[in-house]
Amino acid sequence: MRSVVLLLLGAQLAYAGTHSLKYVYTGVSRGIDFPEFTAVGMVDDGQFMYFDSNSMKAVPKTEWIRQNVGADYWDRETQTDIGFTQVFKDSIQIAKERFNQSKGVHTWQLMYGCELNDDGSTRGYYQYAYDGGDFVSFDKSTLTWTAANPEAVITKHKWEALAVAEQNKGYLENTCIEWLKKYVAYGKDTLERKVSPQVSLLQKDPSSPVTCHATGFYPSGVTITWQKNGQDHDEDVDLGELLPNEDGSFQRMSTLNVGPDEWKNNRFSCVVEHQDKTIRKTEDDIITNFDSVPIAIIVGAVAAVVLVIVIGVVGYLVYQRKKGFKPVSASDDGSNSSART
C-alpha cells in the first residue's frame, strides 16, 4: 500500500492539483501531553485516516473510506505506523545529537504525497523537517536528497548511499497515484462536490484590523486578495492557514492591517475566488459588532481549530515551512556540527 522505506535519520501546502494524496507523520519528544507519534492521511487536504502512538491503531475518518476497505487494510496501516513510531523516536534522538541539544521538546516530521492534475501531469514529494524547519527533501528528477542545513548533509549522503531513490520515485509516480485514483473513486460524491464559500468581513471595532473570512467551501483551492481603489493591494496583509471544518469543507482568513484614516480615505475590497466564482466584499459589508457575527461562522471557526489540534494535523501546523528551500552544498561534510552518526 504505502511502500515507504523506513529510514533512520542516522542510518513538508504546495499548490494542490486536481486531486492530491498526502501523509503527514509527526514525532514529538517527551515533555508535553501529546502522542509521541501521529500519522494523518489526507485526500484533497481532507483527513481520511488517523493513527497515534497512544491508541496504536489506524482508524478511518470518512465514511467513504470506511465503506470501501476492510479490516486487512486497517491492519496493514496499523503495522506500518507502529513501525514508524519507533523510527521517529530514534530519529529525534539522533537529530538532538546533531544539533547538540539535550533538553526541550523537539519534533521530527515527514510529509509526502502526490498530486494528479486535470491534464494528466503528476507531482510527488518527500519532505522532512526538524523542529518545524526544512531538513532534507527528495528530488525525484535527479534521484537525490537536498540538505537544508549542515546537520542534514550527513543524512543526505547516507540516504543516497542506500540506493533507494528509484524505489522512492516509483512510489511517487506509480503506487501513490494508483491509490489516489482509488480513493477518489471511493469518495467521488464527496471529493468531487463543489460548494462556494460564504464570505464575511469581520471587525471588532472601527480601529481594529479587518478580516476577510471565507468558509464552507469545497474543494480547498481558494484565493483571497485585497484591492485598494480597484488595484491589487498586498501590503499589510496576513493570510491565514487553510483549515478544515467539521463537515469536511474548508475555511481561510486574510486580515488587512490598516488604520481608520486609511480606510476612510480609500476604497478597500476583499476578493475571494473559488472555482469559477468570484465574491467581492467592501466596507459596506463589514460586521463591526462582534455579537452580531453569524453563529455559524463562530462555531465553524472554533470547530476547525479544535479539529486541527485533536486529529493531529499538528503535522502540518508544526511544520512551518520556510519560504524558499535553501540547500547546503553537499561538499560540507558536517564537521562543524555536533553530528555523531
UniProtKB/TrEMBL annotation:
GO terms for biological process: immune response. The keyword Membrane applies. InterPro entries: Ig-like_dom, Ig-like_dom_sf, Ig-like_fold, Ig_C1-set, MHC_class-I_related, MHC_I-like_Ag-recog, MHC_I-like_Ag-recog_sf, MHC_I/II-like_Ag-recog. CDD domains: IgC1_MHC_I_alpha3 (cd07698). It comes from the Eukaryota. Keywords: Glycoprotein, Membrane, Signal, Transmembrane, Transmembrane helix. The keyword Transcription does not apply. One of its GO terms (cellular component) is extracellular space. Residues 197-288 form the Ig-like domain. Residues 1-16 form the signal peptide. Pfam families: C1-set (PF07654), MHC_I (PF00129). The chain crosses the membrane at residues 295-319. Belongs to the MHC class I family. This is MHC class I antigen. It comes from Ctenopharyngodon idella. The gene is Ctid-UAA.
